[in-house]
Amino acid sequence: MGAGRRTQTFFAAESWAPLPGNGSLPTRNLDKKDLGGAIFGCKHNTMPECLTKQLFGLPHGHFSYVRNIGEGLPLFLFNYSDRKLHGIYEAASNGRMSFDAYAWTDGGSERTPYPAQVYIRTRTQCQPLTENQFKTIIQDNYFAGSHFWFELDHAQTRGLIALFKPSPHMPIVKELFPPLPAKKLAPKKELVTQPPPTKWKAVENKEYPNAEARYINFEDVDSKGRVSDWEDLSENNMHKLGSGSNSVSIPTSSDINYANELEHLKSSSSGENSIGSDYNYVNAEQVPIPASSDVNYANGEDVEKLSSSGIIHGSDEVVNSRLVRALEELEERTSNLEKQRAEQDRELELLRNEFMDAGKKVQLLQDRIKELEAKSIPLVDDSLDDKSFKKSFCPEDKIYLIGGFDGYSWLSSLDCFSPSFNTITPLKSMSSDRSYASAVALDGMLYVFGGGDGNLWFDSVECYNWRHDEWTLCPSMKRQRGSLAGATLNGKIFAIGGGNGVECFPDVEMLDPEQGRWISNQSMLHTRFAPAAAELNGVIYAFGGYDGKAYLRSAERFDPRVGSWTEVPSMNVRRGSHSVAVLNEKIYCMGGYNGDEMVSSLEIFDPRLDSWVMGEPMNSERGYAATSVFGNSIISIGGVKDDEVIVDTVECYREGSGWTTTGWNAIGKRCFCSAIVL
Fold this sequence. Notes:
678 residues, alpha+beta, ph1033 like fold, Neuraminidase, eight-stranded mixed beta sheet, four-stranded antiparallel beta sheet, 10 helices, 39 strands, disordered N terminus, Dev_and_cell_death_domain, Kelch-typ_b-propeller, DCD domain-containing protein, Kelch_1
């Protein structure tokens, strides 16, 4: 742990690298117009809840682009458990914070770790893609091994959509009729078949060329009968509908006398027997129908001639009209069913939208209730509940949290935390992820310098203007460094110590914003990686850190009037990755790593007495915490407890009352970040 081990410099341990869950990756910071789609994350145990609630979520740090999601934007769901990508979904709402503040938790026992949320709906149900299938499409998004950014540009989105294939749907077959008895037939020969366009056929008798062509009626179907029996009957059987003894047997040998057989059909279709009840329906492939060259289908003119000649009888005209009516009724019924289905789909969509709107309204009401409760119920221990303490926590006071790591991703976010309401408001993000940086306030502006993103150390500097909610780039430092300390003195910014993962630095750089450049300043007496620094009464103090061999107790100060660093009394405890704060003309050093473990101890340096005294320890061991003075109190936020545990609590120290663990839970897990009060 810590820089004391040559193999690492207390960079996020492997267990703190992005974990399988709902979202775990840095952001590309695409503009809203360039955002073509987005990927959300899940695991086997959270995917059912995502799909059941039709709600996707990511950790807070991803809200910088989730808020750019608009209704209809294509979305995808990546399952970390089997590394498959599911789709195709689309946003059913705009992205916002905490539609469901307790989603993906154990029965709603705590606030969700994935508050950057959006409601979704399924655009097309498709088979999931393996990582080998989709990796080439988003190859540019991969930044560290198997980790990739979740933001998609338009070209990547189109590429993923093209890869997905709709899931196969098994047709639902309903048995409209009970099984029908089969009639054994002689082995059939290959026949030429074609469904008749009308029920009438003119058949030429080729065995008796001189025989008169006969027009026969193949079916006299009651309007209630099935029209599609030619297609539905079994290929290998002859089925019989209805009952009766006057069924028609149709041989299938090639030497059939068509004229005699068709005459038999015609005679069977007339007389006392009802075709609707006694006629045998057969498979079209089993009926020997002459080739089209041998058959002349009667058109309207032919039917009129045949009718006048007596070949078509009046009763057959009735049958024909009944069949036409049956077809018309079926078409009308089909059209009505289609209209009903369309109407049902519209009603279902309206109900779905109303349900989603109701869920949003309920969530808004719940958030409002919590906000009102926060105003009326103290969020800290009763021991702090006095007038002066409450006065210091007025609504106008804010703590700015910059970058860091939340257990899932490196963060570029800037958040405004209000202790009075226990709420956190996302502001404009930095240009890149930044952890292990230093931050200071100068002339109402917030400066962040150095640090890293999990892969590289930075020399870059950014400045935030809270009035316009915008970041601007400033001149870079002379060298890349992280885990450095920062302080301001006489309108200038000092970058103190730190390291680059290979070596630790004793040097100090100074930025004069008016001159717009960094210049080298007098180096410290000791090399210090992960030190802490503060300004008090026109003097800069630096405490502890790691010198490349051991963690330090030593301290020194820089007086610009002298222009050099001098020793001051050493601390009682070796510390690195610790925090300092100035309160009531004293310097408080707390927490950190002593070379063996994280500590919770507190010691206080009084420059007027030039000595240290031990104070009441914090309730939790923590290092790399974000610490600031807020009103008359010291606030310590987050940090790490050991290689695997990120602290999610906030502690408050007030002189005379000691440390109290607050009820502020809006921040959640966060470490390697900075906290500033402007």
